[in-house]
Amino acid sequence: MSDISKDMSFIKGLAVGMEIDTKSNEGKLIMKLIETACEMADRIEELEGRIDDLTEELEELDEEVYDLSMDLDDIYENTADDDSFGYDFDDDDDDGLFEDFDEDDDNLFEIMCPECGEDVVVDFDLLDDENSIVCPNCHRNIELEFDIPDDESDISEDDDEDIDD
Q1: Is 131:146 a contact under the CB 8 Å cutoff?
Q2: Which residues form a coiled coil (predicted)?
Q3: For 81-103, b where at least 16 C-beta lie within 10 A, e where not — what string?
Q4: CA-only gyration radius of the chain, Å
Q5: Model pTM?
Q6: H-only helix segments in the chain
Q7: DSSP string over 61-108
Q8: Contact of 8 with 34, CB cutoff 8 Å
């Protein structure tokens, strides 16, 4: 019981002890004021209880959000160098990815990623229609700009003369 409820119980007891005439206008007014104040005290006590319950729930939620935040931090730290498939793209883990790279193969060429500066081996046969690749180191899209002749008829006559010589 809150202080307000205790005070109103005391005031109501005083009014009963004073034997206020509830038939007079003044008595009716005083008793109505006491009843209204008692109802307000009950309502305040109920609201205080609800506030206490909500405060407890809020503290629990705050702890849960903190725990989730810590879990997300751990997940981020553990996957910061990984792609979405769980492959670690650290330089130390190449596992001979390009061991079979043949420098004389006309379908392969090497470029430097403009984002991270790593050398990237590109296979002409694997290029998409937009002539772009994804850097295996920084995972950024690299747009490739070059002209590829559709057939040998696009080669200039000067190039043919150089071949004959």
Answers
A1: yes
A2: 44-71
A3: eeeeeeeeeeeeeeeeeeeeeee
A4: 41
A5: 0.39
A6: 3-17, 25-79, 157-164
A7: HHHHHHHHHHHHHHHHHHHTTB-TTS-B--GGG-TTTTTT--TT-TTE
A8: yes
Contact (CB, 8 A) for 135 and 142: yes
Length of the chain: 165
Determine the 3-state secondary structure of 163 from DSSP. helix
Cβ atoms of 98 and 121 closer than 8 Å: yes
Q: How far is CA 2 from the centre of its chain?
A: 43
Per residue in 25-72, pLDDT (tens digit) is 999 999 999 999 999 999 999 999 999 999 999 999 999 999 998 888
Of 131, 141, 140, 109, the C-alpha closest to 122 is 109
Give the CA distances from residue 9 to residues 27, 38, 41, in Å, rounded to whole numbers and listed in that order.
18, 7, 10
